[in-house]
Design goal:
Length: about 180
């Protein structure tokens, strides 16, 4: 399912919470840092997901990708040089930012669904990422993932996207 609804800018408080999500801060800690109840923080996260046209159960790494790709939050500085990823590893990285189920990730990356977890773990090791959200943040910092209206190139730079859906028109793909 694709939506053409534009993504509206986040409120100041929602942006502060979104920035904490990008930095992988747990909801309970976000609540303490922004002086809100955990329930209110969860409500803001729900609003952030809705603003990005992501389903309520969309994994955090997909939400973070959409936040960074659409410029809703600032991109953290890259930590060191980008690893030299193979085309297969780049397909897997992109599939991780578009899908949540192993079946869909595997199909998009051209690998067996049973191998997705092992390949993602391997990719996280190559990137020195602690989890998939960290992997997405690092990849954005290195310029390996596309920004709104741009496509990432093999060297990590961005060029104008020729055709196809942009991050503002494609929701997180979460299959039931």
């Amino acid at each position: 399912m694709t939506t053409t609804a534009p993504i509206t800018p986040l409120s100041r408080t929602a942006r502060r919470i979104a920035e904490q999500l990008v930095h992988r801060v747990p909801s309970k800690d976000i609540a303490a840092q922004v002086n809100l109840s955990p329930h209110t923080v969860r409500s803001y996260i729900h609003t952030i997901r809705a603003t990005l046209h992501c389903p309520p159960r969309c994994p955090t790494h997909l939400v973070v990708h959409r936040l960074l790709a659409t410029g809703q939050v600032s991109l953290p500085p890259a930590s060191g040089p980008a690893p030299d990823l193979t085309p297969a590893q780049m397909r897997l990285l992109r599939a991780l930012t578009e899908h949540s189920r192993a079946l869909d990730i595997g199909m998009a990356a051209g690998i067996a669904p049973a191998d997705v977890k092992e390949r993602v773990t391997e990719l996280m090791g190559i990137a020195n990422a602690e989890d998939t959200t960290h992997l997405v943040v690092l990849a954005h910092g290195w310029g390996l993932l596309p920004l709104q209206g741009k496509t990432a190139t093999a060297g990590g730079s961005h060029e104008s996207a020729p055709t196809g859906p942009s991050p503002t028109t494609r929701p997180c793909s979460v299959s039931a």
